[in-house]
Amino acid sequence: MMRAIRHSEEALKVALISKSSALVKQYESLDPGERLLMNEAFRRDSILFRPITLQSASDWISAHPEPTQDFEEFYRDPYRKKPTPQSNTIYIQAIGSFGESRVSTEEYVTWLKGYCEAFYYGMTVKLLAPVPVSVTGCSFRVNDNTHNLQIHAGDLLRYLKRKKPSDAFCIVGITTIDLFPKESWNFVFGQASLTEGVGIFSFARYDSDFYSPNYKGRLKRPKKPSKGDYSIFDDCHTPAITGLLLLRSCKTLTHELGHIFGLRHCQWLACVMQGSNHLEESDRRPPGLCPICLRKLHCALGFSLARRYEALVRWIDEGAAVAPERAAKFRNKDPVDLPKPVEAFQEWREWILKCLAVLQKTLLALGKIPPGILLPVPGASNPCSTSLTCSAGPWTTNLQVSNIRQEGQTWHLNNRIGDFRKSVSSVDSLRTVLKGLAFRSLPG
Which family does the similarity line name (predicted)? Predict the structure, then answer.
């Protein structure tokens, strides 16, 4: 039963822009490049935003019918939680240990923190010191079906509510221990109180071996644990931190935080805010937001789309490489400064660069090249060197120019094979050259 959910162009326009004259005017006041990118929602041949594909009757939209939420409904929601200058911090609380590998709990949650800072660009994200399960005082059980340990989601929410700092927009608990909401339920991926700004999410079932008969988290001799005896968690299995687990964790965390910002499950286009009923469906949804959900988050936080995408590329690129002088440390399983496993993020990175190309193309066409912004090209490998501040990752001016070098007040532009050279003596001249080259080299 594979089918794509295709909305009409008119329905998508109303969902994104609205029929309200005030909200239409608000949309028209956006940066031209940002509007051009969001308008990709209406293009049936768009390579950036695609329809949602349902593959079985167990997929979320089929199994859990719910009303859609367009931008106007989001904007006018009286219960929507909004960041304020007094409460603009996302707190992350790790519960239990993370990863039976070289990666420590602290390092893993630091990666998640950095991703959240980029995804929710403009918000402050802080880590609270990891705590063992015993500190929360939560109830727990052994699941009758999987024979693995589970902790009670509702008890954890109450613990987090008590611990929530006064400047918190929200506090989210993360764990690699399986969750259950009540005795009659088999499990739950996560649970949140949107009005209270608290949530708890488990990554246990994102371990590739979780549903395998050989899963190490199964208790060999399952028995009913003694109430309050948290020593049972001393040898609790936690999955090895892989690139795939990190990607799944980042998607889950940003999805659930999106709900706290007031974004409901997306039913417009393929989007990280889609609901998911099972792991295969969760893997299918992309890490990014569709234009309709992107406008919602943009409205909530007021960020520059280009700066946000640059921050996401920077997070992927930073810390992924291993310096040769540190290789011996890794062989000795030193848990400090380990490389970030981002191989699963490369397709996402290429997609972001395509979005940035759309944003920058508009600025170049209008002759508005902001200081510090150079055109990103998917596949480029060398960062440029220039007095203009280059943003994250491998940036270049276009497919022709691979290097910009400054000597005094002169900028030299050239490529590797030497068939293009240009020298200019002012920033204005440099921008003129970049505008001409980059605009010609971009498709469409």
Answer: Belongs to the peptidase M54 family.
